What we know:
This protein has helices spanning about 45-50, 100-110, 125-135, 145-160, 175-185, 210-220, 240-255, and strands spanning about 10-15, 20-25, 25-30, 50-55, 60-65, 75, 80-85, 115-120, 140-145, 165-170, 190, 195-200, 205, 230-235, 260-270, 275-285. The protein is an alpha/beta fold.
Amino acid sequence: MRAAGWDSYEIIDTSGGEKLERWGDVLLIRPDPQVIWDTPRENMGWRKAHARYVRSSEGGGRWDYYEKLPEYWTVNYRELQFKISPTGFKHTGLFPEQAVNWDFLQKRIRGATKPVAVLNLFAYTGGATMACASAGASVCHVDASKGMVNWAKENAGLSGLADKPIRYIVDDCKKFVEREIRRGNRYDIIIMDPPSYGRGPSGELWKLEEAIYGLLALSAQVLTERPNCFLLNSYTTGLSPSVMAYLLAATVGRRFHGKVAADEIGLPVSESGLYLPCGSTAMWISNE
Length: 288
C-alpha cells in the first residue's frame, strides 16, 4: 500500500543509508536502514539540505544544522495540519506513510451506519486520531508519553479539531485496556501502532515480540459486539505482514466474523519513481 497523496511532504531521493525529504519548504536528510543501495546523488537537494541527522557510533545521534530552522513548522495532508519539529531520535513528529492508513480509516468511518467510537493505542502525535475525528468518529487517544499527547493536542488545534470528541489519556496501553474491560467501555475500531521496545509512564517494560499477542487478545475484549475494524501497524524488523495477519486472525478473528489483510506500506521516491518500504500494516475488517 502506498501513501501517494501528499503535497507538502516528499521523499526526493534515497542513497547510502539515507533519505532526502521535503517537509513543506524544509529539506532534511535522515538515516533509513532500508536504503541499502548506493545510487548517485545527482539531485541538488542533497547539497541544499537545511539539516541532517547523523548517527553516533555510541548510539543515538545528533542533528547538524546547515541553516537556522524554526522551532517547528507545519505540513498538511488534505484537511489535516501537523506540527513538525526535529527530535533527538531523528524523528519529526510525523510518519507520512501512515496516510494510507488514515485514508482507510476515514473510509470505514464515513461508510458506517452508526456513530463510531475509536480506541487509538500507542497513539503518538495523533495522525490517526486526527483522521478519525475529522471523519466524524469519537476517539480515545492513549500514549505513555505526556509530551506526545500534548503534541497531539496541538495537532488537533492546528487541524480545527480541538472541539471534537477526543479523549486524551497518558497511560500504559495494556493497563488502560484492562481498566476499560472492567469499566465495560467498548469501541467499534481499534488502532494499534506499538513500538519494538518501550517503557510505560511507571517504567513498565514493553518488548513487542513478547507482548503483542497478549495485548491483541486483551484488546479484542473491548470491541463492540459488531465491530468495524482493527488496524495493527508495525515498524519492527522481522515482523512480516503475514505474521501480523496471523496475529490478528488468531485473536480478533477468533471472536468475530471478518477477513484479514496485510501488506507493506510505503512512500514514492520522486527521483527514482520507485517506492520506499516504510513498515507493515494488517487489518481485520468486519464482514458486515
